[in-house]
Design goal:
single chain; mainly alpha; 7 helices; elongated
Length: about 220
């Protein structure tokens, strides 16, 4: 087994440290902004029963909050796992990462659309926009990974080929699945939310399984 030079490892960590820290901050802000859509009912009539009724009527906000929170959390986890295998960055990678982060910051806005319109006439449009942003995010992840893995230009030395194939396969899978979720809005907005919810659960298990395989390789 080849020994890794400590100085080289420090240089690799230093080269990606700033972009990782910046990215973590963007993910943290986006996930925090989601809570702003959880409104406190004011001027409620009917005492405790009226308050309970008002809180229950806000169920679209709770549903969209949980779905978006868990999805961003999984995206952050995947982002972290990707960076474990990256030793340096270049301009193309930084631009791709910036594109991804821009889209992540839009998720609170699309979540607000779902909160306000899921049980109203504009539900189809709201869910189409919601799913469409995740389609773009899946494209951004593919661009980011392509920039890193093409000719192994930015990857750490010794990353197994099966790990590269695993990441590539998982990222490519996201695009058609989120495209399906977006198209489903024209049949039922609730199907879109259901698919997006099922996907973050799926990605959580996929990330856990991929992580286990990587650590064992």
């Amino acid at each position: 087994m080849a020994l890794i030079d400590d100085t080289g490892m420090k240089d690799e960590e230093k080269d990606t440290g700033r972009i990782e820290a910046f990215s973590d901050g963007v993910f943290a802000i986006a996930i925090t902004l989601l809570a702003l859509e959880l409104k406190i009912p004011h001027s409620v009539e009917g005492g405790a029963e009226g308050l309970v009724r008002s809180l229950v009527n806000q169920w679209p906000s709770y549903l969209s909050f949980v779905t978006s929170f868990c999805t961003i959390l999984i995206m952050w986890g995947n982002h972290h796992e990707m960076f474990r295998h990256i030793r340096r960055v270049n301009t193309g990678f930084m631009l791709s990462n910036g594109f991804l982060l821009m889209l992540v910051t839009v998720v609170p806005f699309t979540t607000a659309l779902i909160s306000d319109y899921l049980n109203k006439a504009g539900a189809v449009v709201a869910c189409t926009v919601y799913g469409g942003v995740f389609v773009l995010i899946s494209i951004a992840y593919n661009l980011l990974w392509y920039a890193a893995a093409k000719d192994r230009a930015l990857l750490r030395s010794g990353v197994p080929e099966q790990v590269i194939r695993k990441f590539t396969r998982n990222y490519r899978l996201g695009f058609p699945l989120y495209l399906l979720a977006t198209a489903a809005a024209f049949f039922s907005p609730f199907v879109t939310i259901g698919i997006c919810t099922a996907l973050w659960v799926f990605w959580a298990f996929t990330m856990r399984r991929t992580g286990a395989e990587i650590h064992s390789s």
